[in-house]
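Researcher: I'm preparing a figure for a lab meeting and need a structural model of a single chain. I don't have an experimental structure, so a prediction will have to do for now. The sequence is pasted below. Please return the structure as tokens so I can convert it later.
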Amino acid sequence: MNQAPDIEIKIDDLSGSDIAELLAEHLRCMAEVSPPESTHALNLDELRAPDVTFWSAWKGQGLAGCGALKELDPAHGEIKSMRTARAHLRKGVASLLLEHIVSEARRRAYRRLSLETGSKAYFEPARRLYRKFGFRLCPPFADYREDPNSVFMTQELEYSTVKHRPNDANRAMRRETPRGTDSGDFQ
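Model: Understood. Here is the structure written out token by token.
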């Protein structure tokens, strides 16, 4: 897998047409491969909730992917809406986004980071990526219930209080300026 060092990850306000199209594709795809009761992807309005931080990944002016972090409680976060644009599959975009989200969860001092993904073969690249990053199978968490179409994974996080200095937060905010109206898959 090629890592994509020229990918820029930014907090996204979800107002751009590119991100709306990628998320619509994500929802359509999830509806095709999972029954409605087992589809847990968030729509645009749900991703705008105050407990969700959403990032988009860009290569130049082209949208490469996206991912989100939802706060379940002050010590537990959930990864949501990971998607790579088709033109950027197998180029390391999902790995960069996941690394970014895990780093942010540590910065927030979450003790645990969890996710739900599908159990079908279609989702194997996602499960492989999560295992590579240290996620392990776990029981359903938050409001999820056992579901033969879902796989639940989690990772216990360690963090350093050094990462909570105000200067570090300010640097992070300068790197992650919101992307406005500028106009996945895993792997």
